[in-house]
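Exercise 7b. Backbone tokens:
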């Protein structure tokens, strides 16, 4: 791990006290066929078909995938390429709302949850399209089925929410704590795990108190963590809490634990108790120039521009719009881009808040090495990638980079190291497929 812990200011004061506000259905949603880690979905509907909120509209036969559901009631307008917040452009199902906002009849309270087997619960979670909502959007049914030879002894509820600006998980803990805990208990049951740790950064004392009131005993502990970035990165969290090191290229499974975040556990609760697919989520909309920032419950597929308008618009022209947090999120080229399942926030910066141009030359100051939480040499990795030496970048363990962005943050040249890392990962993934 890097020797220096350096945290950017958290900028959470603008939204941390604001209750979650529901935006409701919008006139049109855009639902990309790939919103998760894994195989893309194929459409199960055609233009002109009628759907309701929660109707299955796309799926894949592949195991590593997650089905997609409509987030409004209305009709399928088109299936065509549209802006995508991560992939640039991607095929999407466009649905025009009928304004009635009716739910699919399959969404109903399930009474006999206690009798469900682990396999039945995993199937419900899969059918409801639940994925990790911390950003990576890895299908949850797979995370809850570790290989038999890797026994799990600890479940970690990741409630760190260490990215600056983001407060959606914090609000969810204050407003829906019991449901989050229920979701966590379901995950523990599926994994056959008796011990859980609820990990919350100390900058959320009210959430720590609320969670402790509901559950704090020998088997489920609420722990208060130092606030620093990226405390919430899975491997960092495991190291802090359990003093276990996930090996290079390894997963939490390898050291006996599974980590899920707050919003994912809430989604698990909704899937199992209500049979409700993942078609809406809470995001934080913030930044100095957003007139009415907030924590907003939005339908998946809602366009960023519509959400900014719902938040009162901007006080000046946007210089940069990021989907996700400012450290790990991705700058967008259009406000037509939709919120997808893994979107945790929308952060808008004016001209005065945007740093100088990216990718100046490395002056070998070593600051990035000092702060990298994974103990990598970001400077060497970036230089290898710039020379097209992806083999060398792999030797330098580029695949262990958690894309936290702290190296770029401290770099005096403001070098886009994460952008280079993403490129290398993509190249190495393609090489693997060949
Ligand atoms: S983005 Fe990757 S290389 Fe940079 S500090 Fe984070 S883990 Fe290290
Ligand atoms: S912080 Fe930037 S300039 Fe300094 S060594 Fe790292 S990449 Fe080079």
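Sequence design result:
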């Amino acid at each position: 791990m890097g020797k220096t812990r350096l945290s950017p200011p958290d900028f959470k004061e603008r939204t941390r006290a604001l209750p979650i506000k529901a935006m409701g259905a919008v006139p049109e949603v855009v639902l990309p066929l790939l919103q998760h880690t894994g195989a893309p979905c194929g459409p199960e509907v055609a233009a002109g078909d009628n759907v309701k909120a929660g109707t299955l509209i796309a799926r894949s036969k592949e195991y590593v995938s997650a089905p997609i559901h409509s987030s409004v009631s209305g009709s399928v307008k088109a299936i065509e390429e549209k802006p995508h917040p991560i992939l640039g452009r991607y095929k999407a199902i466009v649905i025009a709302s009928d304004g009635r906002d009716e739910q699919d009849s399959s969404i109903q309270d399930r009474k006999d949850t206690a009798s469900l087997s682990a396999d039945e619960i995993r199937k419900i979670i899969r059918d409801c399209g639940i994925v990790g909502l911390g950003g990576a959007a890895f299908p949850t049914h797979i995370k809850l089925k570790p290989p038999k030879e890797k026994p799990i002894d600890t479940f970690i509820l990741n409630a760190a929410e260490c990215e600056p600006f983001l407060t959606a998980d914090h609000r969810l803990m204050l407003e829906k704590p019991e449901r989050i805990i229920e979701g966590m208990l379901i995950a523990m049951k599926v994994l056959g795990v008796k011990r859980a740790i609820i990990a919350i950064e100390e900058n959320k004392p009210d959430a720590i108190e609320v969670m402790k009131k509901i559950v704090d005993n020998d088997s489920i502990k609420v722990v208060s963590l130092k606030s620093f970035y990226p405390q919430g990165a899975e491997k960092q969290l495991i190291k802090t809490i359990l003093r276990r090191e996930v090996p290079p290229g390894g997963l939490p499974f390898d050291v006996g634990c599974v980590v899920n975040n707050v919003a994912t556990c809430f989604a698990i609760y909704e899937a199992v108790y209500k049979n409700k697919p993942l078609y809406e989520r809470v995001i934080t909309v913030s930044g100095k120039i957003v007139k009415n920032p907030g924590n907003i419950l939005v339908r998946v597929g809602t366009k960023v521009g519509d959400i900014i308008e719902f938040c009162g618009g901007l006080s000046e022209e946007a210089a940069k719009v990021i989907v996700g947090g400012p450290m790990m999120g991705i700058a967008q080229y259009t406000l037509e881009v939709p919120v997808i399942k893994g979107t945790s926030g929308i952060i808008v910066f004016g001209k005065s808040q945007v740093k100088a141009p990216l990718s100046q030359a490395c002056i070998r100051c070593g600051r990035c090495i000092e702060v990298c939480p994974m103990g990598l040499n970001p400077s060497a990795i970036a230089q290898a990638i710039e020379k097209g030496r992806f083999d060398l970048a792999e030797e330098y363990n580029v695949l262990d980079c958690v894309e936290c962005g702290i190296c770029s943050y401290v770099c005096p040249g403001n070098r886009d190291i994460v952008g280079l890392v993403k490129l290398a990962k993509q190249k190495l993934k393609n090489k693997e497929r060949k």
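Instructor comment: The mean pLDDT is 94. The CA atoms of residues 149 and 264 lie 25 Å apart.
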